[in-house]
Amino acid sequence: MKTLYCYLYLYNDRVMNFISLIEKTLEGGDSMEHKKTYNVMELKTAKGNLTIEGPISPKQLEEMEFHEDLTSFRPPHQQHKALIEIAGLPEGRIIAARDHNTVVGYVTYLYPDPLERWSHGKMENLIELGAIEVIPKYRGSSVGKNLLKVSMMDQAMEDYIIITTEYYWHWDLKGTGLNVWEYRKVMEKMMNAGGLVWYATDDPEISSHPANCLMARIGSRIDADSVQQFDKLRFMNRFMY
């Protein structure tokens, strides 16, 4: 059975990341100082105690085992390698849940895919929650919620607009036995734990089904100009006449 949290898309292809970084450098991006302050939480569950921590470094990730049930996006060894690469990006963040030295869950943050509208504004203070995954053993243990809570313990997150795009066709409806609206309710509740809330948008893919949605968290130190730029990205079709 697939994990409950396999509904988010993770782009972490090495070439695309490299191209993205070059584009941002040429545009004067990455001038922003991407501060990362490590935080840790001990989570007690009925299946055992977990350590939730991050942002963790590439070296830390390399030294950890990667659970064989983390298969939502690609084979575990490939996904492990991809997360190490994301952790090494200036803006990249990996928050992990581990059982001793084995990663059993994670959430990723990085710049949006260069091919998506959310990167068109070249906003260096906008990052995307790219993926969240937890092994089936810990389903229903609030691991996903606490991964998001630990993410937001870092005060540097107040300098970002954090987005996530949700599409019902990425959700594990069959594996969970939930219908579209039940799944969305679970997903929204989890995202709310990290301060992400629903935002309207005219993005064609999101607008193609009423269950799809854009969720975001606007940091407390985000300036009005950045909010306005984000609003333009949300409603790009208004400005294409």
CATH topology grouping? Aminopeptidase
Based on DSSP secondary structure assignment, what is the total number of beta strands?
9
SS summary, helix count: 8
How big a fraction of the residues is strand?
Answer: 15-25%
* Biggest sheet overview: 9 strands, mixed
What's the architecture in CATH terms?
3-Layer(aba) Sandwich
Record the SSE blueprint.
Blueprint: H1 14-26, E1 39-45, E2 48-54, H2 58-63, E3 65-66, H3 76-87, E4 93-99, E5 102-110, E6 126-134, H4 143-151, E7 161-166, H5 173-176, H6 180-192, E8 197-199, H7 204-207, E9 213-218, H8 224-234
Parallel strand pairs: 3-5, 6-7
Antiparallel strand pairs: 1-2, 2-4, 4-5, 5-6, 7-9, 8-9
Overview of this structure, please?
With 241 residues, this protein is of the alpha+beta class. It has a single domain (14-239), classed as Gcn5-related N-acetyltransferase (GNAT) (Aminopeptidase, 3-Layer(aba) Sandwich). The protein has helices spanning 14-26, 58-63, 76-87, 143-151, 173-176, 180-192, 204-207, 224-234; strands at 39-45, 48-54, 65-66, 93-99, 102-110, 126-134, 161-166, 197-199, 213-218. Strands 1, 2, 3, 4, 5, 6, 7, 8 and 9 form a 9-stranded mixed beta sheet that branches. It is globular, with a radius of gyration of 17 Å.
